[in-house]
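User: Small ask, check this?
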Amino acid sequence: MLRCKTQLMKTQKDMQHMIQDRIKKIQDIKHSAELRKIDPALCSPPHTRNWSEISLNTDVSVETLRRALTQLQETLDEKLSQTGILIL
């Protein structure tokens, strides 16, 4: 008898949780629909460019990146040496 009552209580809790989840989903859907009415642009994807037409010379880009990182490292080392912090 106690086991059936416990099982029934668990089932009731599960059902309540399921109902609350459904109510939350309904509220989310209503909210989304309201946003679409207010500003349809919020729900439509932005216009994007066809990037397949773009090409890039990666050798130049890698070298540019290497120079920039080297310069950043030198600047960082200089600033750290001025403050007396040593990085090994």
Notes: The longest helix spans residues 2-38. The chain is about 70% helix and 0% strand. The CA atoms of residues 56 and 69 lie 20 Å apart. The helical segments are 2-38, 58-83.
